[in-house]
Amino acid sequence: MLAAGLQFFMFSCRHEESRRSTFLFPEEGALIKRGEKVKLQIDAAYTADSIVYYIDSTLIAVKTDTTPVFLDTHDSSFGSRLLTARIYQAGEEDEVTANIIILPAAPPVNYQYEIISTFPHDTSSYTQGLEFHDGLLYESDGEYGGSSLRKVDVSSGKVLKKTDMPANVFAEGLTVIGSKLILLTWQNGIGMIYDKNSFEKIGEFPYQASREGWGLCSDDRWLYKSDGTNRIYRLNKENYREEGFFEVYDHNGPVNYLNELEYIDGKIYANIYQNSRVVIIDPQTGAVTGDVNFSELESRIERYPNTDVFNGIAWDNQGKRLFVTGKKWNKLFQVRLQPVVHAVKE
C-alpha cells in the first residue's frame, strides 16, 4: 500500500508539474529601454480557453492561444514592473509572472564645470546638507557626538550661528521652508524642525516607509527625501508625511546611494555618497538626465587627517550660483556647469 501511495503521489506531482507554464519571453529580470516593444510569450503545456496579460495591474491583451503579445513601453514608468499571464482552461486558472526593469533609453548628458570663485570652508564641519538662503549658507554638520546646525557667511566661511545636537543624533539632509529649517537625522527615525532665525527647535516628525534620513530638498510643492537607496520620497510640505516615492535610474540600471539633494530649476541634483559624482534627476520620471564628475576638486583642497569625501550642494536661486564642497574640506567652490560637447567625426 505504501508503494502504491508513493507512486500515485509521484504521478500527481509530475502531472501538476506538466501543467505549469512559464514565460518564454522575456527572461526574468530583463533590462528594457523605455520605448522598446517587448515580446511576451508563454510556454503553456496545455490548451487554454483564454490568456490574459497584465503589466502590474494594467491589462495588456487577451488571447485564445499562445502566440506572442507585444508590450509597448513608451509610456511605462521606470523601474521594476511585474508581467502577469493568467491562463484559464476548463474552469481552472493558472498564473505565471516575470519581472522586467524599464530603464531610460538615452544615457545622461555629461557636464563639465568651471570654477568661478573659491571661498573658505570650516574644516570642522562634516557637511551633510547645504542650503543658500537670503545671502547666507545654512549647513548641517554630521557625526555622532559632533553634529550641529550652522548659519555661515559665504565669503569668509565664518560660522555666524550654531546649535549643537545631542550626542545620539547624526544630522543629515537640510532644507529651508519659509521661516523654518527642516533637518533629517540619519538613524533616529525622525526629522526636526527649527526656527530659521533663532535656531530654536520647534517640532519633529517621524519617518514612515523610508528607512533612514540622508538628503533633503524642496520645491514649491514637495519635500524630497533620500534614504541611501535609489528611492526619493515625496513629503507633504505641511505635515511632512510621505506621500509616495519614485525610483532613480540611468540607462544602466538603478542609481543607489543618493545622498545630499538640491532642487534646481525643476531638476533634483543628487550627490552619490562616497563618490564625487552628482547626478541630475527628472523628478517627474526618475530618469537621470545629467551627470557631473567633481573628482578633480580634491586636488584643489588642503588635505588634513580628517578630510573626507565630496558632499554638499547649494543653489543661489536669485544669483543663479551653484556651490559645492566636501566633508571637512577647507574650501567651498562656486562652479558653473556646461554640457560636454563631443566633436563630430566626418
Which key features would you list for this structure?
single chain, 2 domains, five-stranded mixed sheet, Immunoglobulin-like, eight-stranded mixed sheet, 1 helix, elongated, 346 residues, Neuraminidase, disordered N terminus
Written overview of the protein:
The protein is mainly β. It has 2 domains: 21-103, Immunoglobulin-like; 109-339, Neuraminidase (6 Propeller), CATH 2.120.10. 5% of the residues lie in helices and 53% in strands. The protein has 1 helix and 30 strands. The protein has one helix at residues 2-19, and strands at 22-25, 30-33, 37-43, 50-55, 58-63, 69-72, 79-89, 92-103, 109-120, 127-133, 136-141, 148-152, 159-164, 171-177, 180-185, 190-195, 201-206, 216-218, 222-226, 231-236, 242-247, 249-250, 253-254, 258-264, 267-272, 277-281, 288-293, 310-316, 321-326, 331-339. The strands form 7 sheets. Strands 24-25-26-27-9-30-29-28 form an 8-stranded mixed beta sheet, with no helix packed on it. A hairpin with a 5-residue loop joins strand 16 and strand 17. It is elongated and about 75 Å long. The N and C termini lie far apart (82 Å). Mean pLDDT is 91; it is low at 1-18.
Offer a quick outline of the entry:
The chain has 346 residues and is mainly beta.
Count of individual beta strands? 30
Remind me, CATH topology of the largest domain? Neuraminidase
The 3D shape can be described as elongated
Q: Give the CA-CA distance, first to last residue.
A: 82 Å
Mind describing the biggest β-sheet? 8 strands, mixed
**Widest sheet, order of strands:** 24-25-26-27-9-30-29-28
| CATH class call of the largest domain | Mainly Beta
- By secondary-structure content and strand pairing, the structural class works out as mainly beta
| Total helical segments | 1
